[in-house]
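Q: How would the structure tokens look for this protein?
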Amino acid sequence: MDEISIEDFIKIDLRVAEIKNAENVEEADKLLKIILDLGDLGERTVFAGIKKFYDPEKLIGLKIICVANLKPRKMRFGVSEGMILAASNDEEGVFILHPDQGAKPGMRVS
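A: Here is the predicted structure in token form.
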């Protein structure tokens, strides 16, 4: 595993976000299009490769952790403006990370 310095870690802006909308990307096998509410930082669109693990309708209202300062990435289906944090492995699948109760959209994670 590669190590990073604390200075590198501080550059990553992790925030609490609430999923406002989630839908299948019909032309993609793995992607969901997700609209995140980051409080005062506004809304962001994220494309996440979690389609076979999550029903998009059940994600709406869920609070998650995202990388808020990831450079936007132009994809075939649109622009992805962040990344949702999840744990995964080949045997058990993908598990979206959640903040504790009381966390609000836009709060910084440190």
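The CA atoms of residues 17 and 105 lie 4 Å apart.

The beta strands are 14-24, 32-37, 43-48, 63-67, 73-75, 78-80, 83-84, 86-89, 93-96, 108-109.

Upvote if useful.
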